[in-house]
Amino acid sequence: MTEGLQLFVPTFRVDEVLAEIRECLEKGWTGLGYKTVEIESRWREYSGLPHAHFLNSASSGLHLAVRLLKDSEGWRDGDEVITTPLTFVSTNHAILYERLRPVFADVDEHLCLDPASVAARMSPRTRAVMFVGFGGSPGRYAQVRALCRERGVKLILDAAHMAGTWLGGRHAGADADVAVFSFQAVKNLPTADSGMICFADARLDEEVRKWSWMGINKDTYARTLSSGAYKWLYDVEQIGFKYHGNSIMAAMALVGLRYLEQDNAFRRRLCDRYDEGLAGARGIERVPVVDGCVPSRHLYQVLVDRRDETMVLLNQNGIFPGVHYRDNTLYRMYADAAGTCPRARTASESLISLPLHLRLTDTDVDRVAATLRRIVSEAPSGLREGGPSSAP
Ligand SMILES: Cc1ncc(COP(=O)(O)O)c(C=O)c1O
Question: What is the pLDDT of residue 2?
C-alpha cells in the first residue's frame, strides 16, 4: 500500500474476528444461516428497526428494495423514481435494473436531496424517492419524508453510509419504507462485502428472504434445522437472485457491530478536530452537518476551487484524499440528464473527502488541515476569489 495518510484504512479486531470465523469453520457452516441469523437479530436489537435481512452488499439491497416495492405496489415500467446525481452508481443502477426511470433532483448544502428540488420534479408517474444519507448525514431527510407521505410516494433510504446515524433518538431508517446499509470494507461497520436491508413492512421482509435466495421458499439452514422425511423439499416462487449474505461476513459484522458506537464517536471527534483546524480558512468550504442528529461521520468533506490541482498537491505532501462522488450525469449511462442539477455538478467538481479512519491521530488531522490551508492560500488569488460556492 502507498505510504502516507490514506482516505480510508479499515480497522478489524483481528483476534475477535478470527474467533467468530473459527466457530463457523469448526461447525462446518459458512453460508446462509447460523451467523447470518445472529447478525440480523443483533442489528435489529441495536438499531431498533423491526426487520433486517443480511445480504452480500448494499448494491444487492438497493436492487431488491426497488424490485419488491415495484412488485408489491404494481409500478409499471417507465414509472419514475426521484434520485440524486451525487452518489455511488449502485443507487441509480437499482432503478434502471427494474426498467424504471431515474429523475434526478438537485442537492442542498448537505449534499443530500434538496426537498424543494424533489417537490419540483414530482410528476403523476413518481412512485418513490431514493434518498442518500450522504457521508452519514441526514440532510433534510425529514422534509423529504414528509413530502413523500403527503404525495403517497415510497421512500427508499440508501443508508450505505449511515450505520450508527441517530435522528431524534431513532436509528436512521426508522421511518423509511426501506433502508439499505452497506458493510463493505471501508464503511463504518466493515466486513469484506455485505449489507443489510430493512423493510418497514413485515410481509416484504418475508418476501426478500426468498428473493435473495433464488426465489427458494425455504433456506438450507432452515431445512437443516427442521425435521421429518421431507426436509429436503422446497418450492421456487420467483426468479430470485443469489444476493444473500454468508456466515463468514456475518462473523465479521458481529464484531464490527460491537464497536460501532465507539468507532463512530472516534470519527466524530476527528471531524470536530478538522472543523477546528479548518475554521475560517478562506477558499475551503466545509460540508455542514445537520443539528440535532448523531451522524456516523462516514466522510469528512470540503469544497475547494481547483480541486484536481489541490488533490495533486496534497498527494505530493503524502496525503491521499478521495472524491465522493462524481455527478452521475457525467457518466454515459445517465448523460441524458446532464445539466439538470447545477449544484450537484458544482459540488462534483470541487469536493474532496479528507482522510477519515480509526488509525488517524490528532497530529495527522492537524497536518492534513494545515497542509490543505497552505495549499489553498498559496493558490493564485484570482482563482480563489469567493470560494467554491461562487462557481457557476
Ligand atoms: C451511497 C452508496 N450507496 C450504495 C453503495 C453500495 O454499497 P456496497 O458496496 O455494499 O454494494 C455505496 C458504496 O460505496 C455507496 O457509497
Answer: 53
